[in-house]
Fold:
Amino acid sequence: MRLNLIQFLANSSLMMSGIFMPVFAKSLGASYFEVGLISAFFAAASFFSSFVFGKAADINRLRPIILAGLAVSAVSFFMQIFAYNAASLAMIRAMVGFSVGVYPAALIVSVYYEKESIGKFSSFGSLGWMVGYLVAGFIGDIEHLFILSSLFFTIAFFVAFGLTDVQKPSISVSYFSLAAFRKNFDVYISMFLRHMGAVAVWVILPLYMASLGASNFWIGIIYAINPSIQFLLMRRLDNFRNEWLIKWGIITSGLAFISYSLAQNFYSIIPGMILIAFGWAFLYVGANQLVVGRSIEKASSAGILNSSISAADIAGSILGGLIMEYFGFRQTMVFAVACAILSLSVFIWMNRPSREVSI
Structure:
């Protein structure tokens, strides 16, 4: 229960702090391209820390890594209230990105070695997203949300004090070993391609919804639809074949992006939110179960998956900002659809079902 509560609190903080970030960046004078760059700074720092601390979690004890990650997150999320222009926001968001890359691999591997359900654990992340979106929609004031997100991480830190060290095999592995990367390359590249398109959408979606007439309240409410459905779905995916989950996660994501491109008002975003809930639930649970089950370096595999997501955040943020700057909202959605098609094609071509092992 402590691991689930930490997952819930951390993801609530992440979403309530991040949902209005494009709007906040614009209020500080950022261009659409700079909005994308700010998101890219966050992702680049997360990419680095996810890789490093995924390796560290295979080599070292898990509890100290979780505690350190939650502590630095509490501090960095609070620091966001001091942003005063686009440049300062970019630097602080990089600090935030680094901090949120420290603990996830250690958490998910703790769940694995405790023989708990990865799907159910992941569902508490989605529940956190839902609460974070709803709280953001009701509060609205971004600086108040920064303080509240820091408080949630502080609570998670104290909850983590009650964790016991998980017994796990001692693994002797170099920080520079690429064995886990090579073993799961089909999953990492497919996740990267799909998520790159998704992030290009997410980085401008609040602005898109605002252009369609949505207030901050309605942006928060509509965003909450996605994780509320994910919470229900993820708890029931453990027995599905992981390759099947990944393929259908990509397909339903592509359908969601098509739906967004056809929206005529902000209510029209809702069907896409339902589709994307199925897409991410399938893809995230399937990918995590597959890479952890395949590999001896389990934390490294989970960390590299997070790094793949962060790398997609970098590319998607920059490309989303550029496409929005020079073409428009709907063209950004078309780019995301193309990424989903490419992701599915690559996964079908590269994946070898015989490589999966039971977890």
